[in-house]
Every structure is written in structure tokens, then in C-alpha cells.
């Protein structure tokens, strides 16, 4: 696990994750940036997917992106934390990694799902992102590299701190 500061659409990696909405037809934030960079063929493939439930993930090609695949996941909208938001956010990371593993993807980058327009408190979200990923990587998996791609330095630092709490205990199985 590592942290990167910058625009996820620029990463040369097997797959990037999109913080989508349940229509999968595009939106603002990182979703808008990914659709703009991938080009109009992306929404055509997304239309065939019949949307995606909160906490689940679906995969498409990357089209004009350097990344070969996009894993689209739908984070929870923050509503105070008592409506299942932590479990749903953890499910976004787990399901994205599971879908990636089904496609033999070795490297993947995540944005900070739900922490923008969906208003999830960013410290709590970073803890869930890193803890869930560390748990996944401790199992047998083709995944070798998970990057948390952060758009600002505060986000970078909170993911770095979360990796320091969890990353050292990760043992990847062959
Ligand atoms: N690269 C990396 N991170 C980015 C980028 C980028 N190019 N652009 C924004 N971020 P958000 P959400 C960061 O709002 O909260 C859309 O309309 C951003 O700073 O993109 O899950 C969807 O269609 C923040 O830290 O996603 C949904 O309706 C993080 O990405 C809704 O927004 C997530 O912010 C999803 O909201």
C-alpha cells in the first residue's frame, strides 16, 4: 500500500477506481474527471451495466485513460453515521478489490471514496480504506500494489498515517 498525491486519471496502472453514483452514468468530482479523460465510449459501456448498488462495484475498460480498467464503486452518502455508512464504505473497498482480483489486476489506485460530494468524514474514511485493504491483502490475491491517490496534502497525510497504523502488519501470501 502506498499514497500518491495527484490526479487519478493520470496514473499508469492496471486499474483505477471511480467514486461513482448508482446510475454509473457520470457526475461531478472524480467521476466527472474520469469520464472526461476516458472519453464518450465509457458512458456507452456504463449504460449496459444497469447501475450499481451502494457498496458494490462493477468494472469497465479504461478507454483513453492510461489505466486499462476502471472499477466503479458507489460510496455511501454521509448521513450522520447511523445508517450503515461505515459498513457500506468498507464494502466499496472490499468489492472493488474482489472485482479487480477476478480480472487478475495486479495494481490499482483508489480515490478517497465518499469524502467529497458525499461528505463522509475524511479521517474515518481513510481508516476504513486502509484497514479494509490491509485485510484483503493478507489473503491470497493477484493484487500486488494498492495506491491511495489523494487530491490534497491533508488527504495524503491522513492515508499515510493510516498505513503506518495498519500497513506494517500486512503479509501478502504467495
Ligand atoms: N483524482 C483524485 N482524486 C480526486 C479527483 C481526481 N481527479 N477529483 C476529486 N478527487 P468526490 P464522492 C477527490 O466528490 O464523495 C459524483 O458526482 C476529492 O477531493 O469525487 O464519493 C458522483 O457521480 C475527494 O477527496 O466523490 C457521485 O454522485 C474524493 O476524490 C458523487 O460525486 C471523492 O470526492 C460521489 O461523491
UniProtKB/TrEMBL annotation:
Cleaved signal peptide residues: none
Residues of the Macro domain: 1-167
Transmembrane feature ranges: none
Pfam families given in the database record: Macro (PF01661)
InterPro entries membership: Macro_dom (IPR002589), Macro_dom-like (IPR043472)
One function term, GO molecular function aspect: O-acetyl-ADP-ribose deacetylase activity
PANTHER family: GANGLIOSIDE INDUCED DIFFERENTIATION ASSOCIATED PROTEIN 2-RELATED, MACRO DOMAIN-CONTAINING PROTEIN
Name of the protein in its database record: O-acetyl-ADP-ribose deacetylase
Amino acid at each position: 500500500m502506498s499514497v500518491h498525491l495527484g490526479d487519478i486519471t493520470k496514473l499508469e496502472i492496471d486499474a483505477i477506481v471511480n467514486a461513482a453514483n448508482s446510475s454509473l452514468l457520470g457526475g461531478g468530482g472524480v467521476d466527472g474527471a474520469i469520464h472526461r479523460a476516458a472519453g464518450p465510449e465509457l458512458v456507452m459501456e456504463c449504460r449496459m451495466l444497469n447501475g450499481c448498488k451502494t457498496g458494490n462495484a462493477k468494472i469497465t475498460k479504461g478507454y483513453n485513460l492510461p489505466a486499462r480498467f476502471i472499477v466503479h464503486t458507489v460510496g455511501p452518502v454521509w448521513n450522520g453515521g447511523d445508517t450503515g455508512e461505515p459498513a457500506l464504505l468498507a464494502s466499496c473497498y472490499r468489492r472493488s478489490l474482489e472485482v479487480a482480483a477476478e480480472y487478475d489486476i495486479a495494481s490499482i489506485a483508489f480515490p478517497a471514496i465518499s469524502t467529497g460530494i458525499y461528505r463522509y468524514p475524511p479521517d474515518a474514511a481513510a481508516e476504513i480504506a486502509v484497514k479494509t485493504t490491509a485485510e484483503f491483502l493478507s489473503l491470497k490475491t493477484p493484487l500486488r500494489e494498492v495506491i491511495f491517490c489523494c487530491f490534497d496534502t491533508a488527504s495524503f497525510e491522513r492515508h499515510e498515517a493510516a498505513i503506518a497504523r495498519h500497513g506494517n502488519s500486512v503479509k501478502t501470501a504467495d
